[in-house]
Amino acid sequence: MPIETKAYIEELYEKVEKRNPYEPEFQQAVKEFLYSLAPVLSKHPEYIEAAILERMVEPERLILFRVPWVDDQGKVHVNRGYRVQFNSALGPYKGGIRFHPSVNSSIIKFLGFEQIFKNALTGQPIGGGKGGSDFDPKGKSDGEIMRFVQSFMTELYRYLGPDVDVPAGDIGVGAKEVGYMFGQYKRIRGAYENGVLTGKGLTYGGSLGRKEATGYGTVYFVEEMLRSKDMSFEGRTVVVSGSGNVAIYAIEKAQEKGAKVVACSDSGGYIYDPEGIKLDTVKRLKEVEKKRISEYVKEHPQAQYHPGCSGIWSVPCHIALPCATQNEIDEASAKLLVANGLIALGEGANMPSTLEAMEVYLQSGILYGPAKAANAGGVAVSALEMAQNSMRYAWTFEEVDQKLQVIMKNIYENSMKASEEFGHPGNLVVGSNIAGFVKVADTMLAQGVV
Ligand code: NAP
Question: Which residues are named in the active-site annotation (predicted)?
Answer without folding.
Answer: 130
